[in-house]
């Protein structure tokens, strides 16, 4: 199977089956896609790459791998409050495996259709397995959620639960033990994250800052603090966790929840006076949220345990170039 046969067979869709989007004037088939910006909107663009052995295990099912490749990009749009409109896919493959490609395309388009986003182009080549997705979305002009708007006194929230993806990784590493459905739940969290697009859109005009949890809650919240020139106090044991993670030792719960990464939940800040509006936004998009701390003037991040006592512990988030 040649490159262009591969593209046509697995990634060019029948118009009756694919997403119909007025954002797309011309999709796959030319040197460039032609997109239509909506009047009064600003476009947001983000790109993430997944590399085998670095971001995912070789044993992951192709449907789940495709889901995650798109989901982590949609999560960036969610963190900015954007509506997804189009995406491209650059795919390096060791070989043209028809079974693998069919599964990959199925997982990719299932999530794309769920969020109304169209594949409009990309590239394919032969090489070590590598997946790079670029997403494009839009928000009303001036309404994008950014990392730089947190203010002293704001509440800090996180969506969903955190830590299951890291727990699954520890099971694969052999440092934690889970069996049956408990392991499958943790593994689903790692391989099939759910981008919080609806919540991001609902928070426009309410949240003062936002970011998604990709490299670990500690590190990602730190980006907000740095860009906003503020500090924070975090109630470590208030972090929302699943029953599976809650069954582990407190030390492992904290490590997974604070430094685990791969959660793709949203951390955001909002004024205290907006608590009821934030709660209603959460209900409207059926996405649970938990208040986990507050913004302070003093720079840096302070951790407190369930009794409000300062927690002296070192947690480090994921870093692609960290060697130790």
From TrEMBL:
Pfam families hit by this protein: AIRS
Enzymatic class: transferase
Binding residue positions for Mg(2+) 1: 48, 123
Keyword annotations from UniProtKB, A to Z: ATP-binding, Kinase, Magnesium, Metal-binding, Nucleotide-binding, Thiamine biosynthesis, Transferase
The keyword Acyltransferase is annotated on this UniProt entry: no
Residues the record lists as binding substrate: 55, 262, 318
Entry-linked CDD domains: ThiL (cd02194)
Protein name: Thiamine-monophosphate kinase
Natural source organism: Roseateles koreensis
Gene of this entry: thiL
